[in-house]
Design goal:
The protein is mainly alpha-helical. It contains 15 helices and no strands. Helix 3 runs antiparallel to helix 14, helix 5 runs antiparallel to helix 8 and helix 13 runs antiparallel to helix 14. The longest helix has 32 residues.
Length: 393
């Protein structure tokens, strides 16, 4: 039963990644159809992020009430409905409305699943599970590129992904009995459907922030996801507008960033058997820095492509290892609450920082894309080092 549930979670992570890169890969085509400025991608991204912030902050309360399995099934169903809404939309403002359930669904499932895996599986499973997210995020731009190059519109790309999400929702509903009575990674028996009166009350946001290291890990997540989402949203436009690569080709090239993440997480799963979570995070940060430097170098298109892949490789271990180390830093009882605010902080980063770069691209130059990523990386490194000093792991 444990192996069947693990396979279901793998599928869930693939599904989580599928829509994440669609907006960035399709935007060079979408904004011309909507007749809006290129920076308006940031508005949609911001709405999605606001929804995820709200649902992430409620994840501890909702998971204690419903259990991880039910929260996951409901959240994926909401995301599927939103993607189908995207596929039938021809108005920018209607697209913004569908972004609301998209964000609410994404935040709940992300926080709930990450905490469940952190508690019940070892670090290499977390890396491989997020590798599955990378598989989805890599396939997303290719599905969109297939739709665009096949003479179809960007709506078709969203339709294909929406149908896949509906299929996953059905799998999750049938898998609900498997989520109960699982052992955590220390061997203690747990139940996803434990009665509410056997569990402690959820922590308030003020109580969580007062926990030593909480502010640092929140800022660390803010910076990491700002880097990842900015790269996801603007890499295609950077290649198209600065390098002069055609929109369809740029969409496929942007997928290389997620190939780097996917391959990196597959490799990280084995490396975590030798290195601990903190060492893996530092290694990833160093590779991101090297990738950004490569993107700053002058030369042919292949150099920028190599830099994107390196940034993806560096991103690979950071997210899963910070998540997996949360119970060790803060304790299993507080891990869902901490992961909830981590997710919220991450989505604040994705809400604010990619749109901010959109303004920079509009009013200064899109060529500052690598410099922008480097500033975020430096702040992330500082916050992670402070976290390791303030907590026991």
């Amino acid at each position: 039963m444990t192996h069947i549930l693990l396979a279901i979670i793998y599928l869930a992570f693939i599904s989580l990644g599928l829509p994440d890169a669609l907006l960035g890969s399709a935007w060079p085509t979408m904004y011309t159809e909507f007749n809006v400025p290129v920076s308006y991608a940031g508005i949609i991204s911001m709405i999605i992020s606001l929804g995820t912030i709200i649902s992430s902050l409620q994840s501890d309360r909702m998971t204690r009430k419903l259990g991880t399995g039910k929260v996951t099934a409901i959240s994926v169903a909401m995301t599927a409905a939103a993607l189908l809404g995207f596929s039938f939309t021809h108005s920018f403002w209607i697209l913004c409305l569908w972004a609301v359930p998209y964000g609410l669904g994404a935040g709940s499932v992300d926080a709930a699943l990450n905490n469940y895996v952190a508690l019940h599986y070892k670090s290499h499973h977390m890396s491989w599970l997020h590798c599955m997210w990378g598989v989805g995020a890599t396939l997303g731009p290719y599905i969109m590129g297939f739709a665009l190059s096949g003479g179809k519109t960007w709506n078709s790309g969203y339709l294909y992904i929406g149908v896949l999400q509906i299929v996953l929702t059905a799998f999750l509903i049938f898998s609900l009995p498997l989520w109960t009575k699982q052992k955590n990674r220390t061997g203690v028996q747990t139940s996803d459907d434990a009665p509410k009166d056997t569990r402690s009350k959820p922590l308030t946001l003020a109580e969580i922030i007062r926990i030593p290291g909480a502010k640092e890990v929140m800022l660390c997540f803010f910076c990491y996801c700002a880097i990842e989402q900015t790269a996801s949203l603007w890499a295609s436009s950077y290649l198209n507008l600065f390098k002069g690569i055609p929109a369809e080709t740029a969409a496929r090239f942007a997928g290389m960033f997620f190939i780097g993440i996917t391959v990196g997480r597959a490799i990280s799963g084995f490396v975590t058997m030798k290195l601990n979570d903190v060492q893996m995070i530092r290694l990833g940060q160093a590779i991101i820095a090297a990738g950004i430097v490569v993107m700053l170098l002058p030369g042919p298109d292949i150099i920028s492509l190599a830099g994107l892949i390196m940034i993806g490789l560096g991103c690979a271990p950071v997210y899963p290892c910070i998540i997996h180390s949360t119970p060790d830093h803060f304790g299993a009882e507080r891990s869902q609450a901490i992961i909830g605010v981590q997710m919220a902080s991450a989505y604040i980063g994705t809400c604010l920082m990619p749109p901010l770069f959109g303004l920079i691209a509009n009013h200064i130059s899109i060529t500052l894309f690598p410099v922008y990523l480097m500033v975020l990386l430096i702040l992330m490194i500082v916050m992670h080092e402070l976290l390791t000093k303030k907590t026991v792991h």
